[in-house]
Automatic annotation (TrEMBL):
It comes from the Bacteria. InterPro entries: DUF1697 (IPR012545). This is DUF1697 domain-containing protein. It holds the Pfam family DUF1697. It comes from Heyndrickxia vini. The lineage of its organism: Bacteria, Bacillati, Bacillota, Bacilli, Bacillales. SUPFAM superfamilies: SP0830-like (SSF160379). Transmembrane segments: none annotated.
Length: 187
């Protein structure tokens, strides 16, 4: 079971792809049991191909069908579950960030990268870390804890400095994807 995470679709009226059309595209690519979750481009599916093959194939097909150049990050259902389980921030740190919040925005996010970032590129974003925004790198995933909204985050807006394709999801979305994958596996 795989989960494809598309970067930057259906944001601010740009790179529009309807989830029904995205599902059909995956089905035409002979990927069974396709499900999507919310408009940000989360697709659960089955395949015997490797992650590298799937990234290339899906990106190519999105370009062919929708005329969009979109980065696709893929994780197995097991990898996604591990990402959720190994969150490096303590419960106290998360609760503190949530208690200080003046909005209902999520505080915990994970940026999933196509590959592990080089240390020199991590150093480029480190300068944006502050007492209101923290991060922890775990291989090819980066965990973020925001005391304020992610929308105003200097860390989040400078992820391009990692020079690796990346996409970010909040913990609520990650948990939902994990539960959907588990439900699909039991069928």
């Amino acid at each position: 079971m795989y989960i494809a995470l598309l970067r930057g679709i259906n944001v601010g009226g740009h790179n529009k792809i309807k989830m029904a059309d995205l599902r059909k595209m995956f089905e035409k690519m002979n990927m069974p049991h396709v499900q999507t979750y919310i408009q940000s481009g989360n697709v659960l599916f089955e395949s015997n191909e490797t992650e590298e093959q799937l990234v290339e194939k899906v990106e190519h097909q999105i370009l062919a069908e929708f005329g969009l150049t979109i980065s696709v990050i893929i994780r197995t259902a097991t990898e996604m579950e591990d990402i959720v389980l190994i969150c490096p921030f303590s419960k106290n740190a998360i609760q503190e960030a949530e208690a200080e919040a003046d909005t209902q925005w999520e505080r915990l996010y994970v940026a999933m990268l196509l590959g592990a970032p080089q240390q020199e590129n991590i150093d480029r974003i480190h300068m944006y870390k502050n007492d209101r925004e923290d991060y922890q790198v775990a291989g090819r995933d980066i965990y973020f804890l925001f005391h304020d909204s992610v929308r105003n985050s200097k860390l989040a807006t400078n992820l391009h400095k990692l020079e690796v394709p990346t996409t970010m999801r909040n913990l609520r979305t990650m948990n939902k994807l994990v539960s959907m994958a588990k439900a699909m596996e039991t069928k």
